[in-house]
Amino acid sequence: MPKLFTYRQPFELENGQSLPELALAYNTLGQLNADGSNVIWICHALTANAHPEEWWPGIFDKKNGIDIDTYFVICVNTIGSSYGSTSPQSLHPETGEVYGLDFPKFSIRDISKSLDLLSEHLGIHEIQYLLGGSMGGMQAMEWAIQKPEKIKNLVLLATSARHSSWGIALNETQRMAIEADATFFGNKKEAGKKGLEAARAVALVSYRNYRTYQMSQIDQDNTTDHFRASSYQKYQGEKLSGRFDAKAYWYLSKAMDSHDVGRKRGGCEKALSGIQAKTLVIGIQSDFLFPVEEQEFLARHIPDSALEIIDSTYGHDGFLIEVDRIKSVLQKHFKL
């Protein structure tokens, strides 16, 4: 069961708006040592939760992974998400009504700012390892720029310094699918459910690739219907809509689009040059949502950094699936 931190003061957002108060759901594994020097902080991706042991199975391993007998692991459900933190489904503390589409828009910088707020509340002033993939990598990168002295080692997986026009276009296409579901604009619990299913199907194509589908979704003798790939898309859409809120997805995708570490900092190169952490950048060769050229850019402009490219058929989802290879490159660069 996640723990809950409530900040009972206005939480100012980058766009000038604010939340009257902020709740963050988070989970921890292991024990914090006396001097607070054993913290591993994991930032989750778009629709994940504060339990990396569930969505990153195998990463916790005494032999060649993260040993929770040695480290204190923490993961926080992001602002706007569906798993306990303040979101469009929360009640506005001043009106008692569900926020819905009155929820203020927020950025990746706001998410990273909230993580730092929680860390200070917990008395964590130094993070030994900060890890994040995809949207989680955006958060980790922002935090390492905001508080360079706090982050000692940084691991960025399948992510970028700025969300690409390609990524924004894909997100907008998903939001269009959600908005085409007329129920989305109401505040009922399942508002936008069918639209979210369509959006997830669009997203899934960008998370995988041609080879992935050729490997797992080939049909025999079908003519006009009941194709495996069709069933797979529908199944994945229904699976997400059964656990996630359409408005949360809509807002979080906009937060992804906001990601640009160079905004008001003189450009991405200058912003990245301020990172002090020893950094490992990991790319997935077949990722066409965050192509390896984006990880190459990060490694070129973060001062103390190394780049590893993992050969995988799983596309962007490789950062979640290729756990053994990820553990291997982590051990190559760090003494975890």
From TrEMBL:
The active site is at 134 (nucleophile), 287, 316. Pfam families: Abhydrolase_1 (PF00561). It comes from the Bacteria. Coiled coil: none annotated. Substrate binds at residues 200, 317. GO terms for molecular function: homoserine O-acetyltransferase activity. Residues 39-320 form the AB hydrolase-1 domain. SUPFAM superfamilies: alpha/beta-Hydrolases (SSF53474). It is found in: Cytoplasm. HAMAP family: MetX_acyltransf (MF_00296). Homodimer. Belongs to the AB hydrolase superfamily. MetX family. NCBIfam families: homoserO_Ac_trn. This is Homoserine O-acetyltransferase. The gene is metX.
